[in-house]
Design a protein that fits this description.
Blueprint (H helix, E strand, L loop, with lengths): L1 E3 L16 H8 L7 H11 L47 E5 L6 H17 L3 E5 L31 E2 L10 E4 L4 H8 L5 H17 L15 H14 L4 H20 L23 E5 L4 H7 L16 H11 L11 E5 L3 H12 L10 E3 L13 H6 L2 H21 L2 E4 L4 H10 L11 E3 L10 H12 L2 H12 L9
Parallel strand pairs: 2-3, 2-5, 4-5, 6-7, 6-9, 7-8, 9-10
Antiparallel strand pairs: 1-3
Helix pairs in contact: 1-14, 3-4, 3-6, 3-13, 5-14, 5-15, 6-13, 7-12, 12-13
């Protein structure tokens, strides 16, 4: 049994009109409107200095605060003592969550984290069934915290009710998996107010009309979905507790990458030996992580609807937007004596490295960022991760690949000054959740998505569909603009 201690993440709220996706769709859907008047308003806004879209973040005072971030790549020692089962009180409410046998690591853990967040909100103890998981056991990679209560003796086989009523008259013992995500996603939708839908719609409209290719920093995570992000972040930090084997792999990777940094040319400061180098030691140079997903994710995103229709096609597979965001973190990159090192975290490290080297080849040598990648000891596909090939590989091969991936993600979260990736990727969102919302909100956030905003899993499709419908409705757009203009949290840098 793989248990999870329930974590309190907020009080149950009254069910809102947004708790059912179909209700939202019906509430927001309107016929196609005429855009002539709307375009006049758009042009007026674009050429008026007082426009809410043209105001930068600077008029709204932003205080830069040193973030004290909790490391995830540490030995789990506190609170891990296990009491005898007979000394524990019985679990009053349990949710049995089953990991499936076909999806990717990031996808499966994202659904699990979402269900765990909802379970904690509703005071369920999560019991995990990973008997058929295509990656092995969760304990192969993570330390599993002990339960605070005693589950039913036949917890796996006992009769359970499908989790569906999102906390309203829910029975004491329920089950869930990724196939019924609409039920726990529906509960999370109760925590999204209408401003979230409105802001997504306006953003998508102007993004599409301006053919924007890079998401502005202040659009990473909107305040209206922050409660959902924080709940998932807390759940993920509870799940992501690397075990001793993973920590040893992270340590070896850290030493190897630090040695590569020391070997790079033009080092003028921060030189240090890797002797006695441990998980808490700072890297020899500033490090920016770029997560660059290739493989089957490119094919998946090429067909992504309706995101493509509204102009937010994910930027994976193209180095340009990633470099543009990196440059925003290094404003003196053209003259700097020591550029930060870019750690390319990819399912095809050598292929990604070649693409980034070719992209930089047009710049003078002094303006090229040093590049490093993780060593990859095993590969089952030529151009990145293919889930179908992974699922057909022997279990020991799958576990080796999973170990390297979890190692790389843990290293990146703990040792990167900044993280640049695409929120269309589950792995990108996992890193965001592990870093915390303080790293995503505002123009000084250390984590950036290059294309789409953070979204809570399945909800991106309703968000995009609703936004697409709303951008066709001239009256709705005109109605929402004055209201959004009064909220400084909605301002963006163009």
């Amino acid at each position: 049994m793989e248990p999870l201690i329930p974590v309190h993440m907020g009080k149950h709220t009254v069910k809102s009109k947004f708790s059912d996706v179909r209700a939202i769709r019906n509430f927001m859907h309107t016929p196609r409107g005429n855009f002539k008047t709307l375009m006049a308003v758009v042009l007026l806004m674009l050429f008026t200095g007082s426009s809410w879209l043209l105001k930068s973040w600077s008029p709204h005072k932003t205080e830069i605060v040193q973030i004290r971030r909790t490391r995830i790549g540490v030995a789990q020692t506190d609170g891990m003592a296990r009491r005898p089962a007979e000394e524990l009180p019985p679990c009053a409410k349990t949710m049995l969550y089953t990991l499936r046998d076909f999806a990717g690591l990031g996808s499966e853990l994202s659904y699990y984290g979402e269900a765990a967040a909802v379970a904690s909100m509703l005071n369920y103890t999560v019991l995990l069934d990973d008997s058929i998981w295509n990656y092995g056991k969760l304990s192969d990679y993570f330390d599993i915290p002990p339960l605070a209560c005693r589950p039913p003796q036949n917890w796996r086989e006992m009769p359970r009710t499908r989790f569906a009523n999102v906390g309203v008259n829910e029975p004491d013992h329920v089950w869930a998996n990724r196939d019924i995500d609409v039920s726990y996603s529906g509960y999370l939708l109760q925590h999204v107010d209408s401003r979230a839908i409105d802001t997504h719609a306006v953003w998508n409209l102007f993004n599409y009309r301006e053919q924007r290719t890079i998401l502005p920093a202040v659009q990473n995570l909107h305040h209206s979905v922050k409660p959902i992000f924080d709940a998932k972040s807390e759940a993920f930090r509870h799940i992501w507790k690397p075990n001793k084997m993973i920590l040893e792999e992270v340590q070896k990777l850290k030493v190897e990458l630090n040695e590569r940094m020391l070997a790079l040319e033009n080092i003028v400061s921060h030189r240090r030996s890797s002797a006695d180098f441990d998980l808490d030691s700072p890297m020899a140079r500033r490090l920016i992580t770029i997560h660059f997903r290739l493989g089957d994710k490119i094919i998946e995103n090429d067909a992504m609807k309706p995101a493509v229709t509204i102009g937010i096609k994910p930027a994976q597979g193209n180095p340009h937007p990633f470099f543009e965001v990196v440059k925003s973190y290094v404003p003196d990159w053209k003259t700097s004596k020591e550029l930060p090192v870019l750690y390319i975290l990819s399912d095809d490290p050598e292929g990604a490295l070649k693409m980034f080297e070719e992209y930089q080849s047009f710049y003078p040598p002094s303006q090229r960022f040093p590049l490093i990648v993780s060593p990859k000891t095993i590969s089952i596909s030529e151009h990145g991760h293919l889930q179908s090939k992974f699922n057909s590989a022997p279990l020991d091969v799958r576990k080796k690949l999973a170990t390297e991936l979890i190692r790389d993600l843990t290293f990146a979260v703990d040792n990167s000054e900044s993280i640049v990736c695409s929120s269309a990727s589950n792995l990108c969102n996992i890193m965001f959740l592990l870093r915390g919302s303080q790293d995503l909100i505002g123009p000084t956030g250390s984590c950036r998505s290059v294309d789409v905003r953070w979204y809570p899993n399945y909800m991106i499709h309703p968000f995009n569909e609703l936004s697409l419908n709303m951008t066709k409705d001239r009256e709705k757009i005109l109605e929402m603009i004055p209201r959004l203009a009064t909220d400084p949290r909605n301002y963006i840098d163009l």
